[in-house]
Request: fold
Amino acid sequence: MQNSCRVIKLRLLPDENIVWATQKGIFGLSFVVAFFGIIGGIFLAFFGFLGTNKGIILPPNPTLGWAGVILILAGLVYMIISSVIAKSTKYILTSRRIMETRFGKVVREISITSFLGRPLSQFLDKEAAGTVNGQPVYNIRITDPKSADFMELKSLNESAVKTLEKISQVVRCRYCNTINSALNSVCSYCGAPLQ
Reply:
């Protein structure tokens, strides 16, 4: 179970339990692009303001220097905004839905009942994203069977992925014969424990 973030002010449905919650990973392609933009801006600013006299003599070009400064600032602002958004984004798997929240509000959700009894391979794509602390992490893309919209969950550990892969599995209540998600610990109809 992955519980590396606090879930605050989340309104759960009746009989809904949080299975795991995690924060979105900070590093991604946008972070890398911003970093290289900053590095490129530093070179432009350096050669624009100072010029060079090694080999080819290039006089200082303030326009090029200011373009470098603007590139540095744009990269820094983009990196800060991306980090704030990543830190405020949480992925939550409950016994009833998969949610993406940002700044404490649900921005996307998919009901677990959409997957029950269906082959999950049609709706879930898993891609290795690297390692964190020597453990593999994955990026997951889940397509909602009803709307065909998708949700991307980034930097999930192996335990969270294995739990997520159970969303299409069903368990039948031995007391009332109701079909439940394998994520449920009690029957959604009669409340009996599911074994």
